[in-house]
Design a protein that fits this description.
The chain is mainly alpha-helical. It has a domain at 7-134: Winged helix-like DNA-binding domain superfamily/Winged helix DNA-binding domain (Arc Repressor Mutant, subunit A, Orthogonal Bundle). The chain is built from 7 helices and 5 strands, in the order E-H-H-E-H-H-E-E-E-H-H-H. It has helices spanning 12-18, 21-33, 38-45, 49-61, 98-122, 128-133, 145-160; strands at 7-9, 36-37, 65-67, 78-81, 85-87. A 3-stranded antiparallel β-sheet has the order 2-4-3.
């Protein structure tokens, strides 16, 4: 799969740094809202500035956040995300990192859920054009693993045809930030709850 522009591909060190829901939230906030101090991030996420500072330093050690040298002073340290996109390539990871991958994905899933809930809650106050543009859809397909990978590649390619939310990309005046979440969720019969299969008539 092609690496996204300004992306970091997780290795064992950076994966372990992100295997914590608060760190995923901190990195996501910096990417979504731009540079901020630990105090500002703490207020946004409902945590103490000390806690925010500690977790930001762990992200810094992994190369995921860095100082914003264009801001701040001796009293206030400003942080920014070092990359716009995070990529996880499970097939390239050490099997010993399996638990960290699962913890990271749980944190990501929680952050996606929060964004979805916030967007739905704010839908009533959106301009009509944006209410009409919003879409939440799901499709139940029956695919092989190779077909699922092909689907992911094609969907990523479609998203790349559009304008990334980066400063160097000039956008029309009526453009707003849009979050696109891609989820391809295998659901093998053995993983279904209570042992019920799709062929069970009950």
């Amino acid at each position: 799969m092609t690496t996204e522009p300004n992306a970091v591909v997780l290795d064992g060190s950076s994966l372990k740094a992100l295997a914590h829901p608060l760190r995923v939230s901190l990195l996501g906030a910096l990417r979504r809202f731009g540079p901020a101090t630990a105090t500002q991030l703490g207020q946004r996420l409902g945590i103490s500035s000390g806690s925010a500072s500690y977790h930001l330093r762990q992200l810094e050690k992994a190369g995921l956040v860095t100082d914003d040298v264009s801001r701040g002073n001796a009293r206030d340290r400003w942080w920014r995300a070092a990359h716009r996109v995070t990529e996880l390539r499970g097939e390239d990871m050490d099997p010993a990192d399996a638990d960290a991958i699962d913890e990271y994905l749980r944190s990501v899933a929680a952050s996606y859920t929060l964004v979805l809930q916030q967007t739905v809650n704010e839908r009533a106050t959106m301009p009509p054009d944006w209410r009409d543009a919003m879409d939440i859809s799901d499709y139940l397909l029956r695919l092989t693993p190779d077909e699922a990978k092909t689907l992911a590649v094609r969907l990523h390619a479609v998203v790349r045809e559009f304008r990334y939310d980066v400063p160097e990309n000039r956008a029309p005046e009526d453009a707003e930030r849009v979050t696109v979440v891609l989820q391809i969720l295998p659901q093998p019969q053995g993983a279904l709850e209570d042992g019920v299969t799709e062929d069970d008539p009950s």
